[in-house]
Design goal:
The complex is a heterodimer. Chain A is mostly beta strands. Chain A contains no helices and 11 strands. Chain A has strands spanning 4-7, 10-11, 19-25, 33-38, 45-49, 53-54, 62-67, 70-75, 85-90, 97-98, 102-104. Chain A is globular. The termini of chain A are far apart. Chain B has no helices and 11 strands. Chain B has strands spanning 3-7, 11-12, 18-25, 35-42, 46-55, 59-63, 71-76, 81-86, 95-103, 109-113, 117-121. In chain B, strands 2, 4, 5, 6, 9, 10 and 11 form a 7-stranded mixed beta sheet that branches. Chain B has a 4-stranded antiparallel beta sheet with strand order 1-3-8-7, with no helix packed on it. In chain B, a hairpin with a 4-residue loop joins strand 7 (71-76) and strand 8 (81-86). Chain B is globular, with a radius of gyration of 14 Å. The chains are: A mainly beta, B mainly beta. Chains A and B meet through strand 5 and strand 10 of A and strand 5, strand 9 and strand 10 of B.
Chain lengths: 105, 123
């Protein structure tokens, strides 16, 4: 199985900060990488697909990048509603696997 | 707008069978561009993909190695839904279970998700 490793596991930040979360795959996954946001008691919500494709309705302060094994999720100016847990997920092969999550607090 | 609505019990006794259903609206489980997935979330395992079903001229079903042999996914075209059955459950199967639609490049990204069902395995 492909292992997905996120860093950091938790991140303390303030409103207006620029925040970057990284995700590393144990082997190349081309750009088959998605990012999700999860708030307590809710299902994850898709933010970005194929590494950098922002989903409709997702604010433009979110951006994704990378290819191969190394990927990033950046929030350019943190807003109160962005405090949540973020997950990366590879959709290159079965089983699809997730990172362990990054809690933004 | 595609929506997934989950149903099923939240408490299952050890050694018994966990059964959940995911009703699909706004799309068809027979869609040629989507796959229908079960995923669970627990403190010990994080988010774990369990399996999927999809239709490409015929039905395909795939399972994660961790549950293969204990898990069954069934599509039901008459009700436009799909189900999960997990046999011989143990407390380690305690988790929040989600259904999700996958589409797009590769094996697909998950969107949307069901609301989640918190399942506790306990006597």
């Amino acid at each position: 199985d492909i292992q997905m490793t996120q860093s950091p596991s938790s991140l303390s930040a303030s409103i207006g900060d620029r925040v970057t979360i990284t995700c590393r795959a144990s082997q190349s996954i081309n750009n088959f990488l998605s990012w999700y946001q999860q708030k307590p008691g809710k299902a994850p919500q898709l933010l970005i697909s194929v590494a950098s494709n922002l989903q409709t309705g997702v604010p433009s302060r979110f951006s994704g990048g990378g290819s191969g094994t190394d990927f990033t999720l950046t929030i350019s100016s943190l807003q109160p509603e962005d405090f949540a847990t973020y997950y990366c997920q590879q959709c290159y092969t079965i089983p699809q696997t997730f990172g362990q999550g990054t809690k933004l607090e | 707008q595609i929506q997934l609505q989950q149903s099923g019990p939240g408490l299952v006794k050890p050694s018994q069978t966990l059964s959940l259903t995911c009703a699909v609206s706004g799309d068809s489980v027979s869609s040629s561009i989507a796959a229908w997935n079960w995923i669970r979330e627990s403190p010990s395992r994080g988010l774990e993909w369990l399996g999927r079903t999809y239709y490409r001229s015929k039905w395909y079903i795939e399972y994660a190695a961790s549950v293969e042999g204990r898990m069954t996914i069934n599509p039901d075209t008459s009700k436009n839904q799909f189900s999960l059955q997990l046999n011989s459950v143990t407390p380690d199967d305690t988790a929040v279970y989600y259904c999700a639609r996958a589409s797009g490049p590769g094996k697909g990204h998950f969107d949307p998700w069901g609301q989640g069902t918190r399942v506790t395995v306990s006597s």
